[in-house]
Amino acid sequence: LTQDDVLVIISGTNDVAVNVAHAAVECIKETLDKTNDAKIVLVDLPLRYDLEEWSCVNEEIKKTNKLLKELSDKYVNTTLVEASKSARHLHTRHGLHLNFKGKQWLAERIIYALKETRSFTPTP
């Protein structure tokens, strides 16, 4: 990828639910290590509103999001979008997926992040 390219990384909560989120984070880290020139938008994980906030899955989501935040802070070409800030009303009735308004909300935040990363200049 070149400095004219953009990479948006969005992952889901399935890996967290089966205790392999660490593997997904490691794959993301490897991708960030290899992608020095492109602008990267990294989207963290939304909470699962079909589960209690204190559930083990939501606790793992919070831990995973902390790792994603640390990664985004480490790489100057990476901006974090916090899907974890999506409110309950932005999710479907069952609470697992974003609804139409939630998808619009997330898309707007990704677009804003892309505009913010436009000024990024890779180091030679």
Walk me through what this model shows:
With 124 residues, the protein is of the alpha/beta class. It has one domain: Rossmann fold (3-Layer(aba) Sandwich). The protein is built from four helices and three strands. It has helices at residues 14-17, 21-34, 56-74, 100-117, and strands spanning 6-10, 39-43, 78-81. The protein has a three-stranded parallel sheet, with helices on both faces. Helix 3 (56-74) links the parallel strand 2 (39-43) and strand 3. Helix 2 (21-34) packs parallel to helix 3 (56-74). The mean pLDDT is 91.
Features of the shown structure:
Rossmann fold; 3 strands; 3-stranded parallel sheet; 124 residues; alpha/beta
